[in-house]
Amino acid sequence: MPTTALLGPAEIRELAERAGVRPTKTLGQNFVLDAGTVRKIVRQADVTAGERVVEVGPGLGSLTLGLLEADADVVAVEIDPVLARLLPSTVARHVDGLTVTEVDGHAVLRDADGRDRLTVVISDALDVHELPGPAPVALVANLPYNVSVPVLLTFLERFDSLERALVMVQAEVADRLAAPPGSRTYGVPSAKAAWYTHARRTATVGRTVFWPVPNVDSALVRLDRREPPATTASRQEVFAVVDAAFAQRRKMLRPALATLAGSADAAEQALRAAGVDPQARGERVDIDGFARIAEQLAAAGVLDRPTRTSTGRPGRVDP
Predict the structure, then answer these.
(1) 21 confidence band (pLDDT: 50, 70, 90)
(2) pLDDT tens digit sequence for 180-227
(3) Cβ atoms within 10 A of the Cβ of 190, count?
(4) Could you tell me which residues are annotated as the binding site?
(5) Which domains does the chain have, with CATH numbers?
(6) Which residues have C-beta within 8 Å of that of residue 167, sequence separation ≥ 6?
(7) How far is it, in rounded angstroms, from Cα 285 to Cα 231?
(8) What is the pTM (predicted TM-score) of this model?
(9) Which among 301, 288, 207, 317 is positioned nearest to 262, based on CA atoms?
(10) Which residues carry a binding-site annotation for S-adenosyl-L-methionine?
């Protein structure tokens, strides 16, 4: 497979200057300068030729080119319209034989055989409910720091074709996503990610590979799709229990679930029926345990009421 000339520090800064782009904290933009890091991400994602990969937040195209180098077909979701419109021309200069066209309102780079190698979707990733072209089998991304967990969980929910994900996130977030029950960092992201996947932290990424240099370390997390727990409770019902259990950390489950269950006694009854100690804390319960609790509360008819999530928004159970 031919090696693609990936973006280096000088070209990234030149591209940004030409487009009048300055990375913003609002959008969580930190561009990867190092080609070795890009290839490590692609390698750890086990990207193979011909796979359809979705990338969220392609930015100036560092990782996009790495995915194309592995002969994957990429659908890139970019919220910044300036960056999204710059990406096709950048890729066309680095990958021979691609022509830029438009299909259903999306910029598409197509090779001589008619294969769509890159499709650019201009959208907030959290608003994406469907993607053009074949269903993606992998999510590979340097996720914007400020929305990494919501984006990851939303895509796992909406696109069940995703068999795996390899994402770069803040090191602290990586620890939370991969944390097992009972660990110091286990919480809402850990439990919700476990509904969909087996997650593990695979590598630490130094700060100097980014522009601008962030004030936190980053890490790679690999998530492999698993079957959700066998339960009659819905995902929304289980996640409502997870949110309530961690709304006040270190609180025992009996009082933590009292509002959701209608009373502390009702919460205790459901917990005992689910085989969970009412004096345990949420940090000790795995996703299967939360599913059993939700099943008991749903059977009692108490999960039909509007819920208030850990983000404080009533009437919605966040992914």
Answers:
(1) confident
(2) 999 999 999 999 999 999 999 999 999 989 888 888 899 999 999 999
(3) 23
(4) 30, 32, 57, 78, 124, 142
(5) 9-225 (3.40.50.150), 235-299 (1.10.8.100)
(6) 139, 140, 141, 142, 143, 148, 152, 220, 221, 223
(7) 16
(8) 0.90
(9) 301
(10) 30, 32, 57, 78, 124, 142
